[in-house]
Design goal:
Chain lengths: 1002, 91
């Protein structure tokens, strides 16, 4: 490596395996075990991106999932490229290609950087304030805002990767692979509980696994050695599953958790082939142990965002774990003892630590004493007031803090450095705890929100630093003690460990550190990703925002892809300080899932393409395919839409099919209609209650059309029901309504009328239905079943017969949805295709024409028959549909009856169904088009077109519409205003064709 | 996502069930004798409680039976499950 930033001694990085990768097109090298971030730092690259609003140069700031700055675009393949990935979490693999985001033309020269100099003009709420007016200018602003505000680029081609979902059930789920998680998992698994340990890193052991200083000892071994042995033992336990590279995204009620397991993102393209990329684990567990640790806080001071400014604990990890020096001349800035640990690690590896600036007046822990012995300069009671260096920090300005910490005193001292470690203390990761419904309490002495044990949902526990324990002895002893109670354990090996560690004695916290300049002239960044500063929060408070949730949205603090993991606490602290509120009373903003971003692929899993939803096909489907049908999706069904011949358009095909059905014969696959078999001695009484018309007198072998309402009086579904026997009926429903109608009927039978003896069974899939219509339909059916009496007397309209086609039992109903003489043949579905082909064969001499849903809709519209769901929308009563004839006036009650004479439903100016004819018979209206009386503004909308077709049988355009007071407007002219013209229409009767129903018996 | 103890099948995931709203609202036996207001009370008025709520649930992707559930809407804790027609076991 150039620059000699890699140290040689290392247990975690395999320096024998060199890996080549590209960053912004430049070829670089790292080692197996590196992350993209550690490899970049080893190459002395700190500048990796530009900030969101001001386009300020930003560098790698952390080593984990909380990273706000180093988010990159991975890969160039338009199907596989991944935006907004944290460089600190990308494991290096051969051939990795990554790019900086949010900069143009390059990260080193970025035009948007001008925003940094315009920043006095870009305060909090800038977009809200500036682009509000005039409203019509939004379209122009939007283009620029969208182009300058984007983060990464979305893939433009379908994702080729495989994703998976898996259900997991366990006794105990432990979240977090640090020392507290490992101890919890071990105690749980040793008790014989089926345990799963989820760890978001590629290795176990958290930060203890590289803590090799002899200040930290367990049973006389350094803490890393002791833990390593525990992990080796842990891996041997059979009833424990360890999921590395897995991150819990959400913790829902009843211990239901979602986790994403990364399976191939650390592999080269070649090694990934044919493998599942990511898996969503859907976990139900009896108990949950949250051991998610804590993340280090930054400090908030002027220009605290320059590349080279890194969290102190991350500097320690880069040197101890990755063997990478983040600089050659490092200074540290802290309010607690953690920075001293970093100084010890750096010192041991031969990295010069220039100065430690500690805002505390004194510190006398074992750690600080050890540092004092090394001769590293410590400035106590000082703060940093400014940093310099545009693309990399090169010096810091230091001044003495006043006693109260609110201002600075004395003279400025400048120190040169190429890296600054900052440590503002620790924040327990309580996201999952709060997602599950847990409530936090505030601990004043070190300013942390920790789980409130009295407001913790049952069957879960938080341990380790996610529960507010930050020192080794507390972490181990409290974890062991609490897990013992939580899992009901007997005595165990961890109860009397000999633990040595440093104890922090002094604390001082200043949320916003003072500077020698007025705050308006400083840039103390809070949310590094969204570029919001302490100034913005103060401005929001001055402008009257009080709720922390409002301040968050106004300033966008905490709204980036990192969800403010670093910034939230300081934002709260500054609000509390400014308003004189106690932080505990202020509360936190809501932490919402996912904890870290999830790919869409993980969320949808295998449910893509044809597996997105179920597809239902009728038993005759293959015939339709062979005969070149175009299909329409009706719910989950694939229904033939029309059957084009010789390159016909849909319009041409439908015109031909519609004419054929009326002039000779047509055949429709109606199998998708819902079919419910009803049996029991009370079925006729039941039908009386659920349909608007009377059913008691329906004779065996007869069919009747019924309209079903909701209890609010609105039309819900319709269809024909046939009485097959004394206590046996079959009901048809609309295709889309089948499942809901069945559920509704079951509901009434189980809850309101359990005394009725009625059994319901869905037989939609068991029976297939073909409908033959047209003046020659009788001749065709006669050919298929010569023995059947088809005379109008023997087999009248609205009646039914059992029969046989060869040896196949069939039910034949003489019912019609087209107005033509028609028969519906129902057979068991496995014979349906054969019977259909027989009908086609028999109908050949009559030019029998298969037709689809479009022709069906046209033919029924000619007759003014409604389609529920197309002409109705849940706001129309039977009377609105001009179907008063179907309401059983003598019936005491039926579902929805009482609602039919509520003050609202008897209004005369309700929207009512009417027919429309265009003045120009060639003009076909658009469905959904509005109807108005005059074009004088304000224009009053009277209604809209629900169905519209060109009728080949009438040779003119026809339409159905719902119009206010439509019943009274017969003959009235209305206007259909379209984009560039107005169409004049006349309101007519809704029945356009064969008003006398002569053709039913033709 | 909670777990519901169907009185006919046992514990199942919430995804197998559908909620039918407030329980113990009986359809009036003589709707015609009700005023518009009385009918509207039955038709539209539902409680939306933060806390203990009595609900109807249907094991729609299971046995398809309707039953009653006593649920705390503030934390989704289910306090009781009982069959249709039975009296609530708690108040
Ligand atoms: Zn059930």
């Amino acid at each position: 490596m150039s620059n000699n930033l890699r140290i040689n001694k290392n247990n975690f990085i395999d320096q024998t395996v060199r890996i080549s990768f590209k960053f912004n097109g430049k070829k670089l090298f790292g080692y197996k075990g590196d992350t993209l971030a550690s490899a970049l730092l080893a190459n002395n690259i700190h500048l990796v991106g530009r900030s969101f609003k001001y386009h300020r140069p930003r560098g790698i700031m952390t080593c984990g999932s909380e990273e706000p700055n180093a988010i990159v675009q991975v890969g160039k393949d338009p199907a596989l490229t991944d935006p907004n990935v944290r460089a600190t979490e990308i494991e290096l693999y051969e051939g990795l290609e990554a790019f900086s985001q949010n900069c143009w033309p390059s990260v080193n020269f970025d035009i948007g950087g001008i925003n940094n100099f315009l920043s006095p003009l870009l305060p909090a709420g800038f977009y809200y304030k500036t682009f509000m007016w005039p409203a019509s200018f939004w379209e122009k602003y939007e283009f620029f805002i969208r182009h300058s505000a984007g983060l990464g680029k979305s893939p433009t081609k379908p994702d080729r990767d495989l994703y998976d979902h898996q259900y997991v059930h366990c006794d105990v789920l432990v979240i977090g692979g640090g020392i507290s998680g490992i101890l919890s998992a071990k105690l749980s698994a040793e008790k014989g509980l089926n345990t799963m340990l989820i760890n978001d890193k590629s290795y176990l052991g958290g930060s203890t696994i590289y803590q090799d200083d002899d200040i930290f000892k367990i049973n006389n071994e350094t803490s890393n050695v002791w833990l390593k042995n525990q992990i080796e033992e842990l891996k041997k336990i059979p009833n424990l599953t360890i999921k590395n590279r897995t991150s819990v995204a959400a913790f829902h009620g009843y211990n239901y958790l979602l986790a994403r397991e990364n399976l191939t993102d650390h592999l080269s393209a070649h090694e990934r082939k044919e493998k599942i990329r990511q898996r969503l684990l859907k976990i139900r567990t009896k108990k949950v142990v949250i051991a998610t640790g804590a993340i280090e806080r930054p400090l908030i001071f002027n220009n605290n965002d320059r590349p080279g400014i890194i969290l102190s604990s991350s500097i320690k990890k880069y040197i101890d774990y990755y063997g990478v020096k983040t600089g050659k001349n490092i200074s540290l800035f802290t309010n607690n003892d953690s920075a001293y640990e970093t100084a010890i690690s750096l010192n041991k590896s031969g990295v010069k630590v220039k100065v430690i600036i500690d805002i505390r007046e004194n510190s006398n822990s074992i750690l600080s004493e050890k540092i004092e012995k090394t001769g590293i300069k410590i400035l106590r009671g000082y703060t940093i007031t400014n940093t310099n260096g545009y693309k990399r920090v090169n010096s810091i300005e230091v001044m003495k803090l006043s006693k109260d910490g609110g201002s600075i005193v004395g003279n400025k001292i400048t120190y040169k450095c190429d890296c600054l470690g900052i440590s503002g203390g620790w924040t327990p990761m309580v996201h999952l705890f709060t997602q599950s419904g847990g409530k936090l309490k505030f601990r004043n002495n070190d300013n942390v929100f920790i789980p409130d044990e009295n407001k913790t949902p049952s069957e879960q526990i938080s341990v380790g630093s996610s529960n507010g324990d930050f020192e080794l002895d507390d972490v181990i002893n409290n974890t062991v003690k609490n897990i013992k109670i939580f899992l009901g354990l007997d005595k165990n090996n961890y109860e009397n460990l000999d633990i040595k560690c440093s104890k922090e004695k002094q604390k001082r916290n200043i949320w916003l550190l003072p500077s020698n300049k007025p705050i308006s002239k400083t840039k103390p960044f809070l949310d590094f990703q969204n570029d919001s500063t302490a100034k913005d929060v103060k401005l929001a408070l001055r402008e009257g925002f009080k709720s922390i949730e409002h301040v968050k949205r106004y300033t966008t603090t905490g709204m980036g892809t990192d969800q403010g993991k670093l910034s939230n606490m300081h934002a709260l602290g500054i609000v509390a300080d400014t308003t004189g509120t106690n932080m505990g009373e202020l509360g936190t903003t809501t932490f919402r899932p996912p904890y870290t971003p999830l790919t869409f692929g993980t969320i949808v899993g295998r449910n893509v393409g044809e597996f997105f939803d179920h597809t239902r096909r009728t038993a005759i489907h293959d015939w339709h395919v062979e005969n070149k049908a175009e299909f329409e999706n009706v719910g989950q069904w694939k229904r033939p839409w029309y059957f084009p011949r010789n390159g016909e358009t849909m319009y041409q095909a439908v015109q031909r099919e519609s004419k054929a059905a009326r002039e000779s014969a047509g055949i429709l696959d109606a199998s998708t209609l819902g079919k419910i078999d009803l049996q029991g001695e009370d079925v006729s009484e039941f039908l009386n209650r659920i349909y608007t018309n009377a059913w008691s007198k329906l004779a065996i072998g007869k069919c009747r059309y019924g309209l079903m309402l909701n209890e609010d009086g609105m039309v819900y579904d319709d269809g024909v029901t046939t009485r097959l026997g004394e206590n046996h009926y079959i009901m048809t429903t609309t295709t889309g309504g089948a499942a809901n109608v069945l559920s509704k009927l079951e509901d009434y039978l189980q809850t309101e009328w359990p005394e009725l003896n009625v059994y319901l069974t869905t037989v939609t899939d068991q029976y297939s239905t073909m409908s033959i219509c047209g003046p020659n339909s009788k001749k065709i059916v006669k050919k298929i079943i010569p023995s059947l009496d088809l005379s109008d007397e023997g087999f009248p309209h609205m009646s039914f017969k059992n029969s046989k086609i060869n040896n196949v039992n069939c039910r034949i109903m003489r019912i019609s949805f087209t107005g033509e003489h028609s028969y519906e043949i129902n057979v068991q579905s496995n014979y349906a295709k054969d019977v259909w082909e027989k009908c086609i064969e028999a109908g050949k001499e009559f030019n029998i024409t298969p037709y689809g849903t479009e022709t069906m809709h046209l033919l029924r519209a000619e007759k003014g028959f409604i389609i529920t769901g197309q002409d109705t929308d849940g706001t129309l009563t039977p009377s609105d549909l001009q179907m008063d004839w179907i309401i059983g006036k003598k019936k005491y009650d039926f579902i929805g009856k009482r609602s039919l004479y509520r003050s609202d439903t008897i209004r005369e100016d309700r929207k009512q169904l009417v027919g429309l004819l265009t003045d120009d018979p060639k003009e076909v209206l658009e469905e959904g088009a509005q109807l108005v009386e005059s074009l004088e503004k304000p224009i009053d909308m009277l209604g809209h077109v629900t169905s519209s077709y060109f009728s080949p049988n009438l040779n003119k355009s026809i339409a159905l519409a719902v119009v206010r007071s439509g019943k009274k407007l017969n003959g009235k002219k209305l206007i259909v205003p379209m984009e560039n013209r107005n169409i004049i229409v006349t309101i007519t009767d809704a029945v356009f064709y064969d008003k006398e129903n002569k053709r039913l018996n033709a | 996502m909670f777990i519901i103890n169907c009185p006919y099948c046992g514990e199942r995931d919430q995804t197998e069930f559908s909620c039918g709203g407030e329980a113990h609202i009986e359809r009036p036996k003589q709707p015609t004798e009700l005023s518009d207001d009385q009918w509207a009370e039955y038709l539209f008025m539902r409680k939306n409680i933060k806390g203990i709520q009595f609900e109807r649930w249907n094991h729609i992707h299971g046995c398809r039976k309707w039953f009653n559930v006593v649920r705390d809407t503030s934390n989704d804790k289910i306090h009781a499950v009982y069959k249709m027609g039975e009296r609530p076991p708690i108040k």
